[in-house]
User: Fold 3-phosphoshikimate 1-carboxyvinyltransferase from Thermodesulfatator autotrophicus.
Amino acid sequence: MTRKEIKPLDGPLIAQVKVPGSKSITQRALICAALAEGESILEDALRSEDPDLLAHALAATGAKVEFSENALRIGGVVGSPRLSGKEIFMGNNGTGARFFLAYSSLGKGTPIVLTGTKRLCERPFKPLIEALQAWGASLSCLKKEGFLPIKITGGGLLGGEVSLSVSESSQFLSALLLVGPYTREPAVIKLSSPLVSRPYVDLTLAIMKNFGAEVEEKEESFFVKPQKYQARHYQIEADASSASYFLAAAALVGGKVTVANLPKDSLQGDAAFAGILSRMGCEISYGQGVTVSRDPETPLRGIDINMGRYPDLVPTLAVVAAKARGKTIIRGVPHLRFKETDRLKAVATELRKCGVPVEELEDGLIIEGTDNIKGAEIETYDDHRIAMAFAILGLVAHGMVILNPGCVAKSFPNFWEVLEGLYQ
Ligand SMILES: O=C(O)C1=C[C@@H](OP(=O)(O)O)[C@@H](O)[C@H](O)C1
Ligand SMILES: C=C(OP(=O)(O)O)C(=O)O
Assistant:
């Protein structure tokens, strides 16, 4: 078991960092580009485990994928993936797996099997599988109904009206939307439950529009007419979730951190994190990127917040809350239990190891801030966001050790180098 010791950082911290491209945008753009006619260039696309796994899966269906220094070139399959009979391994990439399941259902050829890590095969897929089957997809779960591994026979998607539950994940809706332009009949997706993580659906609609596809939304329904994505030269933003760790460093240590390549008008919901930190006592400014600062004399204060729109920010918010005055109540995130690990249980367990009182709720956490945060040996559960959040907490503790630090490769392979830069 490899381990990474985190040295405490004497503030005030003054730093400027850059973070890699957005994982969510990269994976949406990959699907649109793979379905389009012609060659797309995805500038500053994220190169990490998840998008690389998706890119290789798309290449296995006939898309032409070329990795260059800071771009991905994708030659599309014009709406018709070729199923090669191969097994497709998607790691623990939930977004990539849901998107690829819908994309490959458009294809034809020799049936393929989509699978992943043990954890990915425990994560929910049933609402998406049933919706694709209602659209005529030929899918069969090989071990347990509603879960990977799944055999995909392809044959195209009829379209028409389908009802979809999105209380466990917004990715089911994003996956159907992304392939909606290629169903034979107009697609109508009616939501049958409250939608979690709504900003990711807005991101899907924005990227689809960038690639030339229009979606109409009315009340709880989405309408997608048959149309075609256009190949694009597309500039991918920096990842706002990855930026959160370094903005949190400024909040925890005191001082100022600028994420130089995160735009003020980001398409990503998680760009809201700077605003959340300002509610806790930090200052925000925008110029060359986004800057968060906190005067060491101004204590952090706890907040009561519904994080249902921003699930990936919860581990980062939780470690900031560990040092905030009073209680921080995080609500509205029952779907955190379906991520790379059960993040509510994981965050509560690991914070308690650091001497931080935590009450775990069905849908959130109550965290009692303390000035006496202890270092501990942090189990990361092979979850990149647990590793990165607790690494940042380690800046204000003594003796924090992160186990299995390599799991950051999922979304932020150079995280440890960027963290090291804070000590310069
Ligand atoms: O659509 C996306 O790119 C994502 C959606 C979110 O999942 P849920 O919609 O399941 O909350 C988020 O946790 C994930 O990291 C990326
Ligand atoms: C949950 C995440 O990703 P995914 O659902 O794509 O595995 C994440 O990046 O935090």
Observations:
- The CA atoms of residues 302 and 328 lie 4 Å apart.
- The radius of gyration is 21 Å.
- The domain at 23-222 is CATH 3.65.10.10 (UDP-n-acetylglucosamine1-carboxyvinyl-transferase; Chain).
